[in-house]
From TrEMBL, chain A:
InterPro entries with a match to the protein in the record: Autotransporte_beta_dom_sf (IPR036709), Cu-R_B_prcur (IPR007939)
GO CC terms, sorted: cell outer membrane
Signal sequence bounds: 1-19
Pfam family, one: CopB
Single Gene Ontology BP annotation: intracellular copper ion homeostasis
Keyword Signal in annotation: yes
Source taxon at top rank: Bacteria
UniProt KW keywords: Signal
GO MF term set: copper ion binding
UniProt keyword annotation of Signal present: yes
Protein name according to UniProt: Copper resistance protein B
Automatic annotation (TrEMBL), chain B:
NCBIfam families documented for this protein: copper_res_A
Keyword Signal listed: yes
Gene3D superfamilies the record matches: Cupredoxins - blue copper proteins
Transmembrane parts of this sequence: none
PROSITE patterns, per the entry: MULTICOPPER_OXIDASE2 (PS00080), TAT (PS51318)
Domain Plastocyanin-like stretches: 67-166, 240-336, 470-586
Swiss-Prot/TrEMBL keywords: Copper, Metal-binding, Oxidoreductase, Signal
One GO MF term: oxidoreductase activity
GO-annotated cellular components: periplasmic space
Organism in which the protein naturally occurs: Idiomarina seosinensis
Entries under CDD domains matching the protein: CuRO_2_CopA, CuRO_3_CopA
Protein name: Copper resistance system multicopper oxidase
Origin superkingdom: Bacteria
Signal peptide, first to last residue: 1-33
Amino acid sequence: MYGKSLLVGAALLPGLAVAGHAKEDWPEPVKEYYTGQVLFDRLELTRTNEEENLAVWDMMAWYGGDYHRAVFKSEGENVQDDGEPTDLESAELLYGYLVSPFWSFQAGIGTRGTLSSDASMENYAVVSFMGLAPYWFEMDNSLMVNEEGDVQFVSETEYEWQLTQTSYLQPRIEFTANLTDSDKYERQSGLSNLRVGLRYRHEISREFAPYIGVYWNGALGNTADEMKRMGEDTTETGVVLGARVWF
Amino acid sequence: MSNEFNKGRRKFIKSAFTVASALAIAKVAPTWAAPQGRSFKDQILTNDEIDLTIAKSPLLVGNKVGAPITINGQMPGPLIRLKEGQRAKLNVTNRLSEDTSIHWHGIILPENMDGVPGVSFEGIKPGRTFKYRYDVEQNGTYWYHSHSGLQEQLGHLGPLVIEPKDGDIGADREHTIILSDWTFEDPDTVFRNLKVAEGYYNYQKRTIFETFEDVRQQGLEKTWKQREMWGQMRMSPRDIADVTGSTYTYLMNGRDSQMNWSALFKPGEKVRLRIINGSAMSFFDVRIPGLEMTVVAADGQPVKPVPVDEFRIGVAETYDVIVQPKQNKPYTIYAESFDRSGYVRGTLTPELGLEAEVPELRQVPERGMAAMGMGAMAMSGDMKGNSMNMKHMGGNNSHMTHKMTHKKELPVENIKIKHRESGHGAGAAMIATNPVSRLHEPGIGLEDVDHKVLVYTDLVGAHEWPDTREPERQIELHLTGNMERYMWSFDGKKFTEVDGPVQFHHGERLRLVMVNDTMMDHPIHLHGMWMELENGQYPRPRKHTISLKPSEKVSLLITADAPGSWAFHCHLLYHMKAGMFRVVNVA
């Protein structure tokens, strides 16, 4: 009898929880669990060697089960007191699927540009491979293609040295490579940017951890050449003060 | 950090014995946990019909008011004493605002009385009473608990003792001790924390300074070798308990260490202690410094007496031990969480108000090569560990040799374990490429203690069980998990992913082979039928809950004599919730 209702249940609701569900009106003994999280990995104030002050965010939010998740990622910065609008480096909406124990594949769409009414945003399609590499390297690798067909690759890697049970030293490396030249967005092909940072973080709680840190940012290759030609600095250093926050 | 934390906590415990908490004892103490215990030939106070009311009520837990689920106003619930041969009549009334249930853990009964919502019945709706009726055909130490959601974490549990027909408890006096873990956090929050933030409750991780110290002591190469495996697997050797003393208050009969639950004895008396691990997530190492304990029953079933100094009790297991304190002095009953993040103590004492020295928490144990392989090998000549392997590691571990020291060869050692070519999917972060029998090992953190610790191979059934047939069939199940997303499953599939029950044929004798493809210990519980543990002893001990160590394989014999649907699951509450659950159908 149970077998029959199981078969019927399984046929009607493929992939849904029917295992061992003996009676239709009984609750499931174990249900699929859905939850979500908003994580600001970096929420910081930056003081650059140019004596500029920046507010910077780098966040991710997700909702879903163990395998399928809706993911929103965003990064950006605002130079304080310069009258310029906020620079949105990325805002992406993705669907993520857990392809192996430590890696999820994500695909979606994104936009970036300055957040002002007259600015035209750059829209793009993006795929990411995000997860934990051996030796606990936390990685997010993204490939983006915009409406002009320009292709860009961004890779972020973080590592954590456990200093005490509630404090960490965290190196971070991020690089950008352009696979194509882009006249519209003034991008030169090749490795274009490298950013290296180091943060010391102390957890007040698991959810709220202030940090201080330093970073070095440098333009590379053709991009650096172009900047030099224009008489711009190709490197920047800064100190940061911020917090890693999740809820 | 954790040591500081614990030291601070101990200090606090000593100083904070306030009037308020002293007053609260009377209120909080389950009435059954009276210090006198019970004496042999005492009148048996078994009501023919027992009424249990489930409600949520504020109660002092330690020195703070919590909101546990109470049973007849108590947490843990009342001690239910039944007698072998009687018909149990238990009426359970739900005064909660959500469904509830009671499962009688370890009791052989009809499937519709087993109390698992969705498997044996629909649950007990708010305001309703469910009448449990079954014939009691066994005796021993058992327990009962909710099988609805995470209610067990809120204290919805209690002891169940069944007296033997002849009333002989083999001792002059007996005490029942139920251990549990309490948190003031909402259990749903605990589960979410585990889901979204790996290692949330672990405050015993390896620090960079410990690595420096290891390099200084044993050189870079050896340190790297030890770290390499863990790094490749992306797992922590200090990942022992998912939920720890950082949120838990450990309780003995509902009281914390400061309240010091006390049990009386007269010097020279034989005292039977019925010890139940009613925790949601905590394995305990139990000892009474200065007293030898003789184990006489495991999971309610009699075993040939084994004298020990300490035993590890997995979640949901029970052990009966007999002690015979000769001196007129108090003894500490010490139950230490197996990750050493906390403990609870009580006192066995000739008169009330005394206490004995409380041992320090032992050092945080570590899984892995130092703890279970290379380091220990030189001392004991025994390869305590086994090879763990991440899927992509290939045969990197061939340098680890295996030298086991079994007296007897166990059936499971000759059973070839099959893994699917592809592993077990994204839900399983690891497969044990070379699982071994570890029944002769005391478990992590107890490898090198200088006294006798109970091991599963010590357990010998007190007598033969009725079914002496050889198994006709074999079923293999793998325990799998992925810590990063806190997914727990069998064969890589969570309960919500499987398309049918595990099928047992009614009347058959079968061998269940289980392989632990994870880095955690798991207490696996089968409802409705006994599992005879093939530990090389005869008669075999029989259990309702069997704890598997990482990369261990075990085999159990089961007589499928209970028609119907039965739950089969990991008894770590949050593992079960995360999907480590199956239905066994006997037909």
